[in-house]
From TrEMBL, chain A:
Gene3D superfamilies: YVTN repeat-like/Quinoprotein amine dehydrogenase (2.130.10.10). This is WD repeat containing, antisense to TP73. SUPFAM superfamilies: Tricorn protease domain 2. The lineage of its organism: Eukaryota, Metazoa, Chordata, Craniata, Vertebrata. It comes from Prolemur simus. The gene is WRAP73. InterPro entries: Centrosome-WD_assoc (IPR052778), WD40/YVTN_repeat-like_dom_sf (IPR015943), WD40_rpt (IPR001680). One of its GO terms (cellular component) is microtubule organizing center. PANTHER family: WD REPEAT PROTEIN 8-RELATED, WD REPEAT-CONTAINING PROTEIN WRAP73. It comes from the Eukaryota.
TrEMBL record, chain B:
This is SSX family member 2 interacting protein. The gene is SSX2IP. The lineage of its organism: Eukaryota, Metazoa, Chordata, Craniata, Vertebrata. It comes from Prolemur simus (Greater bamboo lemur). Belongs to the ADIP family. Signal peptide: none annotated. It comes from the Eukaryota. Keywords: Cell adhesion, Cell junction, Coiled coil, Cytoplasm, Cytoskeleton. The keyword Nucleotide-binding does not apply. InterPro entries: Adhesion_Centrosome_assoc (IPR052300), Afadin/alpha-actinin-bd (IPR021622).
Length: 454, 523
């Protein structure tokens, strides 16, 4: 495992290009494009204001930089550095900006979600979409980039519109039986749309591409409902994480729940491996105190805790809104074999579930709350960061805790994988660095002693 | 009253013989009777009076009466004696007074007696009354006790009910509390969202206000250097009805593709599962078919069905292999046949189990069949043996270690030494044998080398030697003869030793270094 040197960054804006060749990072109002392997600076662009959002187009030819305060979007071309494009939303304001899947249209959401303006880079045409819904996940594109589903709200009712991305024609428009739609997401195969309601009402609706309601799922009433939703990459499963601390898996044939995965704070099944992060204490020889005294090493390693093991829980404040309970993070591994979850009232632990057997496989407990985790796009390898200066990697072969080298701390606030899975970008508040993983390198620094257990 | 019981003959005349202490009244019995019965004295007066005093015993009766009266405290009946006259004159006045007194007394006594009698009666009736009261009260007490027990029982039941109701109430209260909590959390979420919305709304109002006031509107525009070509390289097209239709078609095509793909997957899965079922069926049939030979002895129904089934299934198999389609009927047939086979297998296994248990119960004394108990006993015995052996080995090991570690007796040390010596001897023997083998190999090699050397050019050399030394050579010996003499040194093929016999039969051995005549000699 090699670490690159540390570069400046602002706003956690560091993105790999979709083709994996380049890496874009922002420092205040400058956009720096580097080569993804050598980290050599290839291009440097200057924007008019502090950049708040950066996005690559799908064909990796263009980058957009959005500056919400000024209501500006600037688009840069990699092939032609002198090409420029500036979109000014003016008095309409700007709250969100994203590319369309063909890489030639930009969708700007104006302030107060008054409308979505579709700017075209090919033609002079401009389209407007009225009444988009201001919710957690209101826009979703299919994986093949053909269709876009948009959540709308008119006259206190929720609707979903399906647009054809090639010509922005409205394909379908249907209302949903939700109180207050919170999110929409296409299945990876592009044929089913999952729609879920606000957390005050547990409801997950599944619509076919042509607008027919395939199924409605409601696990329970009254208590707080859906917190997070994730499709498995094979479109076989839909994982719904809710505030009661459980994940319910729906199958794609009957759209009924096949299992419920609970997150108890005490693990008693001996087949489950529990990794606990432990601080490595520096060894001091008796009678020989070195001068100057060594800095307390913040090295840590994983220890296999014996089952039954108990995890640290956090008692949430019940009289506040958006309580820190329930399954807030869900992610499937790229081969759909594993599901990684985080239960917000056990914030230090990441739970990895085996999807073939539909049971808990491994629990990783860190010393501080988990900030984010992401699966390697190519293989079942999970990278976790907790805000400390370490990055944690887990794979079925084992897990490792790696300290980011360098003087001073490097608090890893976020991370993102390269599309090939060979490198990992670690982002802190003001810096970022790249971590190169050797292909085929086993992550076996903490080998588990399973001895034939499956 | 001084009741003195006398047993006297009232007709006896020896009254005077009796002293005053043992006062006996001749008619005391009668007098008592009269007192008790309180019969009026009128009838028996005469008889009574004549019984006590007669014409003859007047003086005696008077004196007796006087005595009695004086003892009772009455004044004497006699007059006061005048002079020395022994005979006392009867005082009539005193007698009459005494009689009066006695009558008064008698009346008093009768009255008293009546009173006492009435009191007695009263007490008697009171007693009866009290007895009745007592029994009544006892009954009441019993009744009230019973009632009390009944009431206690009821009270207990009611308390139980009360407890249950309390429990229910508690549960309901908990439920209510839970629901209230849920409602509270929902309420906070609602409030939070409402506040957020209101803030947004306020901002909107302000902005609207601003816009209304602001007349110069910033131009909303896009400024681009040049328009970029489309990603797919094609030209843009107008939006028409055709494009709409095309989009619809595309959408349905995608959906259909997805369904077809899924259907294919499911078909494949079905085919695999069917194959597995077929295989299972075949195996089950093969498992059950050996029964064809056995059931000659026993008239089992299952065997008969097995045979018939086997025939049936054979036919089915051939049929099914022709149709490998997912026909409803074919599917049903397959599942039904599998179920049948499975049932037969199950019954077969159950029968075997029964047989085994029957054998155990009857204590079947077949040599092949070992009863479970015997088996268990055997295993226990073996386990014990193993334990014992293990312990023995342990103790032996311990002893060995002790011996090695600590100082032992001379006998044992010498024995050990002998043992070691033996070991060493054996080792040496082995080495010696190895050594001998090696020697043999070397000799063989030497032989071959010397032969080669000899063949090629020794004669020349030797003739020279002979000439110089004037000694007749014995001959060129092979190294093998040399070795027999015990010389094993320098197994060098370049050396040749010649026997040079002198006169006197002494053998001299001389080593001659072979000169390399040709390169071919040495190898």
């Amino acid at each position: 495992m090699n670490f690159s040197e540390v570069f400046r960054l602002s706003g956690l804006l560091c993105r790999f290009s979709p083709d994996g060749k380049y890496l874009a990072s922002c420092v205040q109002y400058r956009l720096v494009v580097r080569d993804a392997n050598s980290l050599q600076i290839l291009q440097l662009y200057t924007c008019l204001d502090q950049i708040q959002h950066v996005e690559w187009s799908a064909d990796s030819l263009f980058i957009l930089c959005a500056m919400y305060k000024r209501g500006l979007v600037q688009v840069w071309s990699l092939e032609q550095p002198e090409w420029h494009c500036k979109i000014d939303e003016g008095s309409a304001g700007l709250v969100a900006s994203c590319w369309s899947p063909d890489g030639r249209h930009i969708l700007n959401t104006t302030e107060f979600h008054l409308r979505i303006t579709v700017w075209s880079l090919c033609t002079k045409s401009v389209s407007y979409i009225k009444y988009p819904k201001a919710c957690q996940q209101g826009i979703t594109f299919t994986r093949d980039g053909r269709y876009m589903a948009l959540a709308e709200r008119r006259d206190c009712k929720d609707y979903v519109s399906v647009f054809v991305c090639s010509d922005w024609q409205l394909l379908r428009h249907f209302d949903t039986d939700t109180q207050d739609l919170a999110g929409v997401e296409w299945a990876p195969n592009g044929c089913v749309l999952a729609v879920w309601d606000t957390c005050l009402e547990y409801k997950v609706l599944l619509y076919s591409l042509d607008g027919r309601l395939l199924s409605a799922f409601c696990a329970y009433e009254w208590s707080l409902g859906v917190k997070s939703v994730a499709w498995s990459p094979s479109s076989q499963f839909l994982a719904v994480g809710s505030y009661d601390g459980k994940v319910r898996i729906l199958n794609h044939v009957t759209w009924k729940m096949i299992t419920e995965l609970g997150h108890p704070a005490a693990i008693s099944n001996p087949k489950i491996v529990v990794y606990k992060e432990a601080q490595k204490s520096p060894k001091l020889g008796l009678g020989h105190l070195p001068f100057p005294p060594p800095r307390a090493t913040s090295e840590s390693k994983y220890e296999i805790a014996s089952v039954p093991a108990s995890l640290q829980t956090l008692k949430p404040l019940t009289d506040r809104a958006n309580p820190k309970i329930g399954v807030g993070m869900l992610a499937f591994s790229p081969d759909s074999y594993f599901l990684a979850t985080r239960n917000d009232n056990v914030p230090n632990a990441v739970w990895v579930w085996d999807m073939q057997k539909l049971r808990l496989f491994v629990v990783l407990e860190q010393l501080s709350p988990v900030r984010s985790f992401q699966w390697d796009p190519q293989q079942p390898r999970l990278a976790i960061c907790t805000g400390g200066s370490k990055v944690y990697l887990w794979s079925p072969a084992g897990c490792a805790s790696v300290q980011v080298p360098g003087e001073g701390d490097f608090p890893v606030l976020s991370l993102c994988w390269h599309c090939s899975g060979d490198s990992l970008a670690l982002l802190s508040k003001d810096h970022f660095c790249l971590c190169f993983l050797e292909t085929g390198e086993g992550v076996g620094l903490a080998v588990r002693q399973r001895d034939g257990h499956t | 009253m001084g009741d003195w019981m006398t047993v006297t003959d009232p007709e006896s005349k020896t009254l005077s013989q009796y002293t005053s202490e043992t006062k006996m009244s001749p008619s005391s019995l009668y007098s008592q009777q009269v007192l008790c019965s309180s019969i009026p004295l009128s009838k028996n007066v005469h008889s009574f009076f004549s019984a006590f005093c007669t014409e003859e015993n007047i003086e005696q009766s008077i004196s007796y009466l006087d005595q009695e009266l004086t003892t009772f405290g009455f004044p004497s009946l006699y007059e006061e004696p005048k002079g020395k006259e022994t005979k006392r004159e009867l005082n009539i006045v005193a007698v009459l007074n005494c009689m009066n007194e006695l009558l008064v007394l008698q009346r008093k006594n009768l009255l008293a007696q009546e009173n006492v009698e009435t009191q007695n009666l009263k007490l008697g009736s009171d007693m009866d009354h009290l007895q009745n009261c007592y029994t009544k009260l006892k009954e009441q007490l019993e009744a009230s006790r019973r009632e009390m027990i009944g009431l206690q029982e009821r009270d207990r039941q009611l308390q139980c009910k009360n407890r249950n109701l309390h429990q229910l109430l508690k549960n309901e209260k908990d439920e209510v509390q839970k629901l209230q909590n849920i409602i509270a959390s929902r309420a906070t979420q609602y409030n939070h969202d409402m506040k957020r919305k209101e803030r947004e709304y306020n901002k909107l109002k302000e902005r609207l206000h601003q816009l209304v006031m602001n007349k110069k509107d910033k131009k909303i525009a896009m400024d681009v250097l040049n328009y970029v070509g489309r990603a797919d390289g094609k030209r843009g097209s107008w939006r028409t009805g055709k494009t709409e239709a095309r989009n619809e078609d595309e959408m349905y095509k995608i959906l259909l593709n997805d369904y077809e793909y899924r259907q294919k997957q499911i078909l494949m899965e079905n085919a695999e599962l069917k194959k597995v079922l077929q295989q299972m069926k075949k195996e089950m049939i093969s498992l059950l078919s050996p029964q064809k030979k056995i059931p000659r002895e026993r008239a089992d129904d299952s065997a008969g069905t097995v045979i018939s089934d086997v025939e049936e299934d054979a036919g089915e198999l051939s049929r099914e292999s022709m149709w490998d389609l997912s026909c409803e009927t074919v599917r049903e047939q397959l599942t039904n046949s599998i179920r049948k086979q499975w049932r037969i297998l199950k019954s077969h296994v159950e029968k075997l189990d029964n047989q085994v248990s029957k054998v155990q119960l009857e204590g079947f004394n077949d040599e092949d069949v070992i009863s479970r108990q015997d088996h268990e006993q055997e295993t226990e015995k073996l386990e014990l043996e193993i334990q014992q052996c293990k312990e023995m080995i342990k103790t032996q090991q311990q002893l060995l270690q002790q011996q090695l570690a600590t100082a032992c007796d001379d006998d044992t040390t010498s024995l050990l030494r002998d043992c070691y010596l033996l070991e060493e001897k054996e080792r040496l023997k082995e080495e010696w044998s190895l050594f001998k083998e090696q020697k043999k190999n070397f000799e063989r090699e030497r032989r071959s080398f010397t032969e080669a050397a000899i063949r090629l050019g020794l004669e020349v050399f030797l003739t020279i030697v002979v000439v110089s030394h004037k000694i007749s050579p014995l001959g060129i010996c092979h190294l093998s003869t040399v070795s027999r003499c015990g010389v094993t040194r320098q197994c060098n093929p370049e050396h040749v030793c010649c026997f040079l016999r002198k006169k006197g039969n002494t053998v001299k051995i001389k080593f001659f270094h072979l000169q390399p005549l040709t390169q071919d000699c040495r190898h």
